[in-house]
Write the structure tokens for this entry.
Amino acid sequence: MASNVNPTVRRRRLGMELRRLREQKGMTAEEVAERLLVSQSKISRLENGRRSISQRDVRDLCGVYEVEDRRIVDSLMQMAKDSRQQGWWHAFGDIPYSVYIGLETDAASLRVYEPQVVPGLLQTRSYAQAVITGALPEVPASEIEKRVNVRTRRQDRINDAEKPLRLWAVIDEGALRRVVGSRELMVAQLEALIEQSHLPHVTVQVLPFEMGAHTGISGHYAILEFPDATDSSVVYIEGVTSDLYLEKPNDVQRYTVMYEHLRAQALGVEQSRRFMARIAKDHAESEPPALPGFVRD
């Protein structure tokens, strides 16, 4: 989807502009909510781009902020209209992480640390299906298939010939050794990962066990940056029931420094390829584990 009509990014830009107008007026979110007879949480959600915003909302807020320049009002109204369009992911129905997909679709670069599984943008279809099935054992097969389709559709950003996503992935050794699906599937996934690491816009580094404690020890996170300078970077932390989006400069800076430490501790690019090849060889040569109570002949 073209970035100029990405509804998620439109909402973020509109929210940032509305926050700027409020602060320029010297008003708090509570004061604005009181004037409009709405909840303070609604104003906060509109400003952080987590809620769709109507043209009526924009009109009312511009009235409170006493915006007299009609061109500014019209521009904000158009952004509100664009923000209510549907992105490609809406065709798949209700997707719990649709906000993240919208951001990823418009991002220029993505830095991700993944301790448990291969990053979604670099997963083979078979691996993705095995991961999602294992993570959601009570979800029907039709829902699993939908999520797999969404994941593979997201990978278009990596394969985009004109504007590919710049991806830097640091992957923990545990994610590569964990047998997802089968050892044969893992061999295919690691071979695909090595091949993708040769793309000019994809960098893959492995963080081996021997590095011990590190700045990513608390878990997965991703840092998204955007081509438009007005769009602030976002740190994304995935949760079981809800996700966390950090946009404050201090928070983004802290995670950026953490990521630089991770990159420094991880193996170099060529070392990582050799390391992944050795793990693939280990998977290929390993015998299936004995099941409980099962005695081999």
